[in-house]
Amino acid sequence: MTLQRLSGDPRQAERWCAQVAGAAEAARVLLLLAGTATAAVPAISAAGATPQSRRLTAAADAELLLLGPAQPRPHALPPLPAGVSPALIARVVVEHLGLEPLVVDAGAAVAPAVPHLQLGHRPARCLSTGAAIEPERVHQLLARGRRWGQQLGRLDQRRPLVLAECVPGGTSTAQAVLEGLGVPAAGLVSGSLREPAHALKAQLVAQGLAAAALTTQSPADLVLAAVGDPMQPLAAGLVLEAALAGVPVLLAGGSQMAAVLAVALALCEPELRPQLAARTAIATTAWVAGEGSSDLALLLEQIGQRWGAEPLAFAASLRFHGCRSPELLAFEQGYVKEGVGAGGLAALWELSGRSPAALADACDQACSRLV
Hints:
This protein is α/β, with parallel strands linked by helices and about 375 residues long.
């Protein structure tokens, strides 16, 4: 196992990895789609070259995950400044491991044209309004996530849960939620742009938190309603109950999954937080873990200090240095880093006993078939 440990107790990390490795090819994969009007702010995101194209990102990525690169897809992948959607990595992993992802639309701007669970929610308003989501919707999404987590615990505690997301603008809502919960996250959160828009994000977050009149002691549900997106309450409720029921949880992503874990810790009874942290791990790509203009490891340390439970986190070893496809080489140049569970699924690939080099080669082949 070559995963790089970013955070967490080494012995707990070893136990978690062994548990997930033993059932890697039986993992349940959930891809949660959502939207936020924050993605329409100019220069905030590279998950699509224009605000209009970013409305289609979640649908297009879900279709690539389920249909694969060689099939015609109803929604074309949005143009990127360079590279290709990380959904390509996710697709290669689920195909080779024989996994069957469930796509859940928790509030995307455009629904995917593939089989999915439709929750009927709208995208969030821009976080700068301080009124991103109606409180009632936050409570509904939290409650639904908690029910799902409890059900997974009753079904089979040995099957890992892999939770992925696609939320254009979601690193901005992640930063806003983290700061709303009292975690100093400014300058630490990554993003889809080659150089994260730290100043713009800080401005939006400050506007949103001021408009909502939040304090660092505000309850998590109020923070989510003020500056969050619909993926976060659904994911946090699910993680909280699944992990406490004994299910090993893999949060496939970077800063956005750090915010999900922070919300789950905030909702958790204090005496149960170490248990939650021991059964849940974030796994991201090497490109996020090694990014010089953000710092996921320090962000996780701040989360650990805030709630007295050090998060487990890893970086997958996948690299594309030797690939032929220029779209994959763009990952090495910082144009694409993470999304659609790419880092967590690449980590699951390694835990299943497969080599990162074999995954890079399979991604190269898939990229050559991309329609």
